[in-house]
Design brief:
heterodimer; A: alpha/beta; Rossmann fold; 2 domains; 14 strands; B: 341 residues; mainly alpha; ABC transporter involved in vitamin B12 uptake, BtuC; 15 helices; 77% helix
Amino acid sequence: MKDRKFSTVLLTLALIFVLFAGACAPAAPAAPEAPEAPAAPTAKALPDEIVVGVVQPLTGSFAVFGKEGQIGAELAIKHINEAGGIKSMGGKKLRIVVEDAGGTADSAKLATESMISKNRPVAILGEYISRFVMAASEVTDREKVILIADALVPQITQMGRQYLFRPGPTATNHGAMAYQFVKETAAAAGVEVTSLAILNEDSANGRANSLGATEAALKDKISIVTTLEYPYDITDATQIVQQLEKANPDVIIHTPYFNDAIVFGKAFKETGYYPKFIAGAGACGYVDPASIAALGDAAEGISMTFSYNPAKDTPQNKKFVDEYKATYGYIPTEGAGMNYYGAMVLYEALEYAGTNFPDDPLNPDNLRASFLALDLTSGPAVETYPSNQIKFSPTGDNLFPGVVVLQVQNGQPVVVYPADGAEAKPVFPNPYYVAK
Amino acid sequence: MNVKKFFNPRNILILFGVGIALVIPLIFKAGQYTMLLMTTVLLYAILASAWNIIGGMAGQLDLAAAAYLGLGAFTTGTLLIRWNITPWVGMIIGGLVATLLAMLIGFPLFGFKVKELWYALSSSALVVVMQSLFMMWNEVGGPTEKYLPVGTSPWYSLRFNDYMPYYYIMLIILVVVLLVNRWIRYSKLGYSLLALGEDEDAVEVLGVNSQSSKLKALAIYSFICGVVGGIFASIYGYVHPAFFDTSMSMEIAILGIVGGMGFIYGPALAAIVMVSFREVLRASLGSQLAGLYLAVYAIILIVVALYQPRGIAPLVERGIKKAQTYFVELTRGRRADIKSS
């Protein structure tokens, strides 16, 4: 009897475990066949191929983002090789190796160790979650491997890591941009905005976004009537929406995670409370195709900040977007974009190293020096980057971070800000809310 | 001690295992990846062996391991970050704090005779509650990772650049936990717990205080989890409420059950086999087809549940018995040969 009881319990636990861990695992196209790891390069002779690692959460609750990041990096490496590889190193080709970081920090750290011990890449792209980057960057710094991170949380570059670079903007940049967008768009439309409510899910990312928005707003002496934080897996937002209604701000700056944006969108619709505008920050939720499909007209007019501009009108970006769309059926967004230009920044650094350190371009310290020496205003990295300059600070952050704002207009996400990279003009106040 | 009695096949096997574990890193000059993997395996082996006390022996399906582990991690981490107290002290305090929490939870739970699935649910909820609490408690937890400083001396801050020291610390703890398991198993407490796991009411009638026995088991288990939490934080270099991980708690219970409920070495063995196997699957299949490794892992668990419901320890036990009889027959056979000649 006892045996059967425990086998039932065990079966149940096993099933729940798999459901938990694999809940978001997307169907993945097979990664390119990885040949045997190349032998360690003899002193200063270049290897046949330059190995680039991609470590992304491909299973677990962050899998959707990790998968996109992997695709972005793969396309970038493909384009670099098609364009003739690293020309300053005699056209050396890049080879990509992918490893799954799983859903927890311990699997992310294991994956990073495994990636380095098996493949010895010159650089690793990814990890997406700030605590994964935190655990992994201890490994990459010890092994002197460049880590090109695609996590937004500002703290990851504040731990004194030497080989960590983040081409993308920080979450604080995102929050500040959300505010700046509201301010300028409202002024252009002649609408007065005197009060804000700041709303975010309770992760490090959510909080950093809100901090950026708050700081920017306080500089302009805009009053912040309420700041609210809630768990990202919230299932009922009615109460919070009622609190917002009581505070009655002109504009709400909201940093959602993903599903919570849908929960909030529906709660706004149900309660019938609408401010003049809801501006999203932090690149998740509201304006992606899945959220628009779930929210219907409740998504109309909401804006969101992104670290990548799919509408940037440059040949390299067109090539990326077209090929991505042709293969996967939708345009690349945050994860894919960040890893695409991350790989392109690596390409520029490799070219620089080949030219300026011809004796030993792949030496980690030479490569690091190359990253720090970059001051890009043209080329494939800038062509796909939201701002028009890439230059790293000594801590590894981009001194010219670019953030763009997309708005849902007639059920489609369109780039509306900043004006020079925009597809359409922003609409303010939210026409859908005005009509109500 | 009787030397002859000590060198029976079982003890030889155990000594052999410990010996191998001691020299593996030295012989193979294992790389950092292998060392981290083996350290992780030991971590799970310790937690599963600790779980064996409350789950295997006392029969309480406890799913709160990560709550105690996380609490130990936060205690150790906070003491180091705020007051620069070494994790060597921090992890003991962490263990005690975890025990305190366990007592606060265990006293009413066992007092009101919450058992079986209800106990599982309550203990599982504890992990979620702790995660939410530490998410809100900004001074100690909060959504932003708190980074543990490396400091001047790695031995003081328990922050090493390679995993060898962690490995040996974990190995020592595992041996201690296995000895504790063994000591409990053959003590009065152990017999009460085993009987409790079978039929609580009958044991009560016989005059065993089931509540205090279960509380003792829970205290030892949570203390071990808390201590290990301190090392866990040191290895990963930060503390974050994500340490309160429901699926980790569940995996530890699974390892305990797969290993063989109540067998001293079963859960550790299961952890060594299953966790390394899972990692091999992740590293080899992870980039090919995302999630495949989890499916394969689950299938193996299901097969074990169907065909070896009592776990893998009884299987090993049978093997040892066979070896023993073979051994005895061999010596007897020899004697017979001598007599006949």
